[in-house]
Amino acid sequence: MTSLEVLTVGRVGVDLYPEQSGVPLAEVSTFAKSLGGTATNVAVAAARLGRRAGVLTKVGPDGFGTYVRQALEGFGVSSEHVGTSPDLLTPVVFCELNPPADPPLLFYRLPTAPDLTLNEDDVPWALVRDVPLLWVTGTGVSAEPARGSQRMMLANRGRKKHTVLDLDYRPMFWPDVETARAEIGWMLDHVTVAVGNRTEVEVAVGTSDPDEAADRLLARGISLALIKKGAEGVLVATPEGRWTVEPNPVEVVCGLGAGDAFGGSVVHGLLSGWDPVKIARYANAAGAIVASRLACADAMPDQKEIEELL
């Protein structure tokens, strides 16, 4: 693959989606397999929009690991930096479409996930330093050695333009909120863009009020904060001003993956040099499209679909 425009770092897995909606997991009879994991889905979403994307992550030495690599390449995402953790299994995630808007997730990532074993030998240091956009995640610092590796990546990059933190907070990956706040908070001083919902900004900066959270993020040196407010749209905050982008009403089939579609469009917008409001509008539309579909990676929209909705 030609030189990458975006490198995402972090979670990968195989998502198993019920083919029956609105019933408990115990009553599901069939599942559909899809590529998943926040960092992975963002790379796929960016690739769908024409960006040269790669993922830095790890899988197990099993058939699902092979599937991850094949699926990435099929989506046009480089798998060159997908390593193998020899003693662990590729994570599997079951979701229950009950309720469809906010499906409960059941993660099989024990004793730990391969993506949390990223160490300094796995990191392409020159790429991390020079890639036009680096995307890191809150989950990526939930355990060692990935925590230390992601910290070193940010230190190595030196807060270069387009260093993005997806706040990506999932409580099951953390011992408590205070630990998550300390670790995710450390990264805020080393990135230029922060993306998250109300819950995630509350974990990161101690308040779920979007305007107050934006103030606190900007005070940490963030140049663009995108705070997702659900049915109230998206707050866009920069040192120059702030705006609210209205939501796109859709009939929700599955809420999973919408945030990652949003992220892929943020990548595309930043690399395109768009103004922050245009980025948020485009990203909001991409998220709405994926919320109206089943699956994550397979559901990511292309530019034509996003522009038609807008």
UniProtKB/TrEMBL annotation:
The keyword Membrane does not apply. Residues 5-302 form the Carbohydrate kinase PfkB domain. Gene3D superfamilies: 3.40.1190.20, putative 5-dehydro-2- deoxygluconokinase. InterPro entries: Myo_inos_IolC, Myo_inos_IolC-like_sf, PfkB_Carbo_kinase, PfkB_dom, Ribo/fructo_kinase, Ribokinase-like. Keywords: ATP-binding, Kinase, Nucleotide-binding, Transferase. GO terms for molecular function: 5-dehydro-2-deoxygluconokinase activity. It is an enzyme of class 2 (transferase). Its EC number is 2.7.1.92. NCBIfam families: myo_inos_iolC_N (TIGR04382). Belongs to the carbohydrate kinase PfkB family. This is 5-dehydro-2-deoxygluconokinase. It comes from Lentzea miocenica. The gene is iolC.
